[in-house]
Every structure is written in structure tokens, then in C-alpha cells.
Design goal:
By secondary structure, the protein is α/β, with parallel strands linked by helices. Helix content is 35%, strand content 20%. The protein contains 15 helices and 19 strands. Helix 6 runs parallel beside helix 7. The structure holds thymidine-5'-phosphate and zinc ion. Zinc ion (ZN) binds next to loops.
């Protein structure tokens, strides 16, 4: 496994990092650290060849539990400008996400009275994949996306996109220019925002009185049960269960209308939020009860999780070591951000993985942060198949196993890293 020297540039870190001392949702200072995965680099910052010889910045990655509102969270905040201005993640690069968003749009159109005058705003709209599912039915759409390189892609598809970070100030401007929104979407942004107060004030300003705010966030019980520790990284500041969300929305005069589990990003929840509810779905109480039974309110639960994470790391490192000793050729399949958490935390470098493949054009031709493994298009995997492929994009296991059935028929194997390293 690669032995890297860590570069921690304290002055630079002070410029790009902020340390929070109180809980992001309730303001309590009763915060307990239960897991440390760092120091690691920023996992969406793929490196060009010319950057390989320069020192790389590593940042702490410590996870805390608030004993007041039960929010699991990071307190070391890397500046959003640094994290999101040039961004490598493209929604449209993963076909399952396109299908998922299309179903989300269908569900919204079925359940809420919308017409061609209705305005649908997507916060963190990425390449416009989700909004396209609404615009094709003739609804008005508006994207808000901080990464200018990605906002341009959406514009090119005809999805009008404002390049900005969403907060209260941005919402005030948008409300003046575009009027109130009937639907505001925030898929995979809610966990990325440090200042939830400003975000929620912004939602309150921009949402029509009877409008609906819909978020999707990875669901904490899935992270815990499936040991998805690699989904913890600097972009993900909060790890939500329903309990802290109820607490947060109430602070802003809103209630959860309904909540559903959806099978993306390792298991997420889709949460429908409104100002005045006629009736709340039973799903809300059901999940709250499940969360109590799973003892999400107890620090012990998180300390046990941390012990299990160390065991996964030890088992995976041991498995790869044994395979390498036997002379196996191993590569990585997918180069998601979470894959870079796994590689850095387990110190899996080029001495173990010959290369990784990924469908995202921005990542191809670059190197994985921290571990410096070259990223190729999937063609390389078909041309130079390994004996074993470490499935870093494990959340797409079903699709990928099906897609790569030829590789498997010819004797190629996949290694699933979590919840327990397994060869399939
Ligand atoms: P995500 O889990 O954050 O959506 O990222 C998944 C990454 O895996 C993304 O970079 C695209 C890549 N990917 C592949 O390389 N092959 C695939 O078949 C799929 C579905 C994703
Ligand atoms: Zn709290």
C-alpha cells in the first residue's frame, strides 16, 4: 500500500477552512467526535499530470454527533468556493440517476397541481438533468448551480441556469426576477450546506404559499447499517435522519408532508416539505419510530459504527494484499468521490490498483486525489481486463454487474468493498 507523506499547509487551511463549534441544526455545543477518516485530500479534485509532483493538501475528516438534536455532522468546513467552483461530478454521466430523476418528476407531476405557468426551481441543478424532466412537460424551470463549468452544460441543453450559491441573498434576487416558485427541488445539496439557516430563509422567501420544497438526502440509517463510511467527505457536512429534519423545518414554520425511501446514493430519503399541512403522511411517524428503535439518539450507536469501519478497512487491505501476493491484476471500477475516501483511508495506491475507469469525461486522463491512480474511460477495462475490479461505485453494483456480464463470464471478478469486503 502506498506510503505517502502528508502535506498539511496550516496557513492555506486557515484560508479555506472554517471550524464550527455549535451544531448546524440546533446550535447546541454538546458535540461528540466518534470517527476520524482523515487527513485526506478533497475527493472531487482530480489531478492533472502536471500537479502530481506538487505537494497536495490534506484536510481533517472528523465526524461528530449532537446529543441534543441527534444530527451527525462535520465541523471542519472547507470553503464552498474551493469545493464547488470547478466540479467534476455530472448527474448525466450516470444513467441510473437520469432514470431516478425522471421518476421523481413523474411523482411530483402526479401529486401536485402544476401547469405550464408553474415554476420549478432546482438548487444545485448540475447539468440540468432533473429540470429537463419538467421542461419536457412544458413547465417553467430555473436552475441554480455554483459550478460555472457545469451550469454552462445545462444552458447548452436549454435549461436556464443562474451560476450562484443559493442562500437568502440569492433567493431575494431570484424572487424579484422570477416570482415565487411552486416547486423547489434540492437533491443532494441539503447535506452540502453549512449555513442551513440562510438556506431555509431563502426557501421561505422563494417558495409560493402553497408551494412544496422537496429534498433528497442520503439516509443515515443506511449509512450505518451498510457501513457506507466512504460517503463521508468534506462536501457532505450533515448526515440526516428524519428527527433532525423535523427539528430544522419547524424552526422555519414548515412541516414534513411526506417522506419516502429512495434507492440512490446508498439509500436516500425524499422529503416533501410545506408550510401548512392538511394531513401528514404516516410515513413520517413510521420512520421516526424506526429511528428511535435503531437508537440513533445514542452516542453508543456511533461508537460501535466507528469500530466496524476500522474492521472493514483491515479486512479489505488484507484481501487486496493476499490477491496481490498471488500475482493478481486489480483495477478500480468507477472513480466516485466516495471511492477516493476509501482509497485514501485504506491507503490503496497505484501499487495495488493499476488504473481506475470512470464514465465522467472530466475525470478521464486525470489522477485520483491523494492516491494518484490514473483514470481511464471504461474502454481500457474491456481492452485490458483485470483479474479483479474493486467496485468503488458500489451504489451502482446491480447495473454494473449486469453491464459487465461478459467480463464475469470470462472469469473476471468484482470486489465489493462494503458492508464487508466480498469477491463476486
Ligand atoms: P456517484 O456514486 O457519486 O453517482 O458517482 C458514480 C461515479 O461512477 C461517477 O463518476 C460515474 C461513474 N460510473 C462509472 O464509471 N460507470 C458506471 O457504470 C456508472 C453507473 C457510474
Ligand atoms: Zn444539534
Amino acid at each position: 500500500m502506498s506510503g505517502k507523506t502528508l502535506h498539511v499547509d496550516k496557513t492555506k487551511q486557515e484560508n479555506v477552512m472554517l471550524r464550527r463549534t455549535a451544531c448546524r441544526v440546533c446550535g447546541s455545543k454538546k458535540l461528540h467526535k466518534f470517527l476520524s477518516l482523515g487527513p485526506i485530500p478533497l475527493v472531487n479534485k482530480f489531478l492533472g499530470e502536471e500537479q502530481l509532483s506538487s505537494p497536495e493538501d490534506f484536510y481533517p475528516l472528523d465526524v461528530y454527533f449532537c446529543t441534543n438534536c441527534y444530527l451527525v455532522q462535520l465541523l471542519d468546513i472547507v470553503s464552498p468556493q474551493v469545493l464547488f467552483e470547478e466540479y467534476a461530478y455530472l448527474t448525466g454521466a450516470s444513467e441510473p440517476m437520469q432514470i431516478h430523476f425522471s421518476k421523481l418528476a413523474d411523482e411530483v407531476l402526479e401529486n401536485f397541481k402544476l401547469n405550464e405557468n408553474s415554476l420549478v426551481i432546482d438548487i444545485g441543478s448540475n447539468d440540468g438533468t432533473l429540470l429537463q424532466c419538467f421542461s419536457k412537460f412544458g413547465l417553467q424551470t430555473l436552475g441554480i448551480e455554483p459550478a460555472s463549468n457545469i451550469a454552462q452544460l445545462a444552458e447548452a441543453k436549454g435549461i436556464h441556469t443562474v451560476t450562484d450559491f443559493f442562500d437568502e441573498g440569492c433567493a431575494i434576487k431570484l424572487r424579484k426576477e422570477y416570482g415565487p416558485a411552486n416547486v423547489i427541488l434540492g437533491t443532494n445539496i441539503f447535506a452540502h450546506v453549512d449555513n442551513l439557516e440562510s438556506l431555509m430563509r431563502g426557501i421561505n422567501c422563494l417558495l409560493a404559499n402553497d408551494g412544496v420544497f422537496i429534498i433528497e438526502v442520503p439516509y443515515l440509517p443506511n449509512l450505518l447499517n451498510n457501513l457506507e463510511f466512504d460517503t463521508i467527505y468534506h462536501e457532505h457536512l450533515s448526515y440526516f435522519a428524519v428527527h433532525p429534519l423535523v427539528y430544522l423545518f419547524r424552526k422555519f414554520g414548515m412541516e414534513i408532508l411526506d417522506v419516502k425511501q429512495v434507492p440512490v446514493h446508498g439509500g436516500s430519503i425524499r422529503v416533501f416539505v410545506q408550510r401548512a399541512l392538511k394531513q401528514q403522511s404516516q410515513n413520517v411517524d413510521n420512520l421516526l419510530l424506526m429511528e428511535r428503535k435503531a437508537m440513533l439518539n445514542s452516542l453508543k450507536t456511533y461508537l460501535k459504527f466507528a469500530e466496524e469501519v476500522v474492521l472493514v478497512k483491515e479486512k479489505l487491505v488484507q484481501l487486496l494484499k493476499t490477491l496481490k501476493k498471488e500475482g493478481a491484476k486489480i483495477t478500480g471500477y468507477g472513480a466516485p468521490a466516495k471511492g477516493n475516501v476509501l482509497l485514501n483511508y485504506c491507503k490503496i495506491g497505484r501499487d495495488v490498483l493499476d488504473y481506475v475507469t470512470d464514465t465522467t469525461p472530466f475525470k478521464q486522463g486525470k489522477y485520483t486525489p491523494g492516491t494518484h491512480i490514473p483514470v481511464f474511460p471504461v474502454k481500457k477495462f474491456h481492452e485490458e481486463p483485470p483479474d479483479y475490479a474493486l467496485l468503488l461505485a458500489w451504489n451502482y453494483a446491480d447495473e454494473i454487474l449486469q453491464k459487465e456480464s461478459d467480463y464475469r463470464k470470462k472469469g473476471g471478478k468484482f470486489i465489493l468493498p462494503i458492508p464487508e469486503p466480498k469477491v463476486i
